[in-house]
């Protein structure tokens, strides 16, 4: 993971934490930051092609699967742990948005852009790296989209 971050100009940004960062709440508490600054790397499966799509979302939001399906133009489903590991090289709870074993179509929800600095998983449930939203966009090549659930319900 360190070499992937180095290639992207983000060397020295990863941190191993003493406590688990498997959830956004755990990561926010461990880092002393807002839960919204934690970037969740969520992997979905497109049943029609058995391919993966990753959505980077703020830790304080939920992805609206119907919005994501409409954006892509076909149904998506939550990926199994085995599918996530096979397509990304990482286990759920530590899925990094960079250093993937194969290219994955990548989106970032606009809510991530609301912060000056964000934290994303760095390959394990206890490691994270920090970046500005612009650095994250550059590193991942993700397309900015609006797929978060409407907070009003």
From TrEMBL:
InterPro entries: YbaK/aa-tRNA-synt-asso_dom_sf, YbaK/aa-tRNA-synth-assoc-dom. CDD domains: ProX_deacylase (cd04333). Residues 20-137 form the YbaK/aminoacyl-tRNA synthetase-associated domain. It comes from the Bacteria. This is YbaK/EbsC family protein. It comes from Actinomycetospora atypica.
């Amino acid at each position: 993971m360190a070499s992937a971050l180095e290639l992207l100009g983000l060397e020295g940004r990863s941190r191993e934490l003493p406590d688990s960062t498997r959830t956004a709440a755990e990561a926010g508490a461990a880092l002393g930051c807002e839960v919204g600054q934690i970037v969740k790397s969520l992997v979905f499966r497109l049943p029609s092609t058995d391919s993966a799509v990753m959505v980077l979302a703020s830790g304080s939001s939920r992805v609206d699967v119907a919005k994501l399906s409409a954006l892509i133009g076909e149904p998506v489903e939550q990926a199994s742990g085995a599918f996530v590991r096979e397509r990304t090289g990482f286990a759920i709870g530590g899925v990094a948005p960079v250093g993937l074993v194969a290219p994955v179509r990548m989106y970032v929800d606009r809510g991530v852009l609301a912060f000056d600095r964000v934290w994303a998983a760095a390959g394990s449930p206890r490691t994270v790296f920090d970046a500005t939203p612009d650095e994250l966009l550059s590193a991942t090549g993700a397309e900015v989209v609006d797929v978060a659930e409407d907070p009003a319900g």
